[in-house]
Amino acid sequence: MRDGVIYVATGEDYLDLARASAESLRQTNPGLPVDLFTDRPQADGLGMFDRVHRIDHPHARSKLDCLPLTRFERTLFLDADTLVLRPLGDLFDVLDRFDLALAHDVRRASALVQQGLRHRTPYAVPQLNSGVLLYRRSDPMLSFLREWAARFHAEPSLDRDQVILKDMLWEGDLRFWVLPPEFNLRRVTKLGAWEPLDVLPTILHSHRLLDHLRAPGAARVRSLAEVVRLERLALEEEWTAAGGRPPDWGW
Questions:
Q1: Would the N or C end of the chain have less CB density within 10 A of its end CB?
Q2: Contact residues for 215 (Cβ-Cβ < 8 A; gap 6+)
Q3: Beta partners for residue 36, in sequence order
């Protein structure tokens, strides 16, 4: 098949999140094929997926093993903590020109997001976020994906796959495109600053959707409005903890 979306979810908690994300995709993009890779292929409530593929040896970064297994010519991989807010439009057509497309990570001023394993890059070359990946099933791309997985498995001390991804994109010649932030919307507080013709927010990717897993008793977050409310509160808390916004910003 030409275009499709895949999720990789291990464990019941992440499987539940993948169901919710897939439901949002179905509502906004009816008819687009959706596959799931999971260690729980017999679980209930998987009817929104066209095909369910078994993961026999799950681990925290099983997605690296599953990405090359896509049956689609052009694939959009989505992390489980995502919601699709509107039709994807002609997003897949980016792959008529490039093998891979993904967005910059946030917290680019942190050492965490600047980190590489083999290479030290300029500040303007931070990690790219691997939670939303658009890729073509080409020979160079499949080779890249398999090497990414192999390098990650060879570094047992690493728990973030983006460190190796950054190295590989820096040193390689794979044709890739950096997507604008509305296709991997991490900082929803920007929504209030954008003008009407600036962007079309399309894919929300927020750790707020994981809050109920990280803090026992926390309410399940299910909507963009709730993510925005929580992120506005967190934004003020972070600036307060940092001593306030820099005065030369004029705020």
A1: C
A2: none
A3: 7, 52
Burial label for 240, CB within 10 Å (0-12, 13-18, 19+), is exposed
Of 126, 150, 154, 24, which Cα lies nearest the Cα of 79? 24
The length of the chain, given as a count of residues: 251
Torsion, Cα of 12, 44, 61, 17 (10° steps): -70
Collapse the DSSP code of 62 into the 3-class scheme (helix H, G, I; strand E, B; otherwise coil) and give the result: helix
- Cα separation of 166 and 72, whole Å? 25
With beta carbons less than 8 A apart as the criterion, state whether 38 and 100 touch: no
Q: How far apart are CA 200 and CA 173, in angstroms?
A: 30
Say how far residue 93 (Cα) sits from the centre of its chain: 19
| Across 179-203, average pLDDT | 95
- pTM score of the predicted model: 0.95
Instruction: Give the tokens for residue 224.
Output: 């963009």
- Ramachandran sector of residue 244 (left: φ over 0; alpha: ψ -120 to 50; beta: rest): left
147/211 Cα distance (integer angstroms): 32
Do the Cβ atoms of 186 and 129 come closer than 8 Å?
yes
pLDDT digits (tens, 9 = 90+) for 222-246: 999 999 999 999 999 999 999 998 8
Confidence of residue 251 (pLDDT cuts 50, 70, 90): low
Rounding to the nearest 10 degrees, give the CA dihedral for residues 238, 159, 65, 102. 30
- Kind of pairing, strands 3-9 and 100-102? unpaired
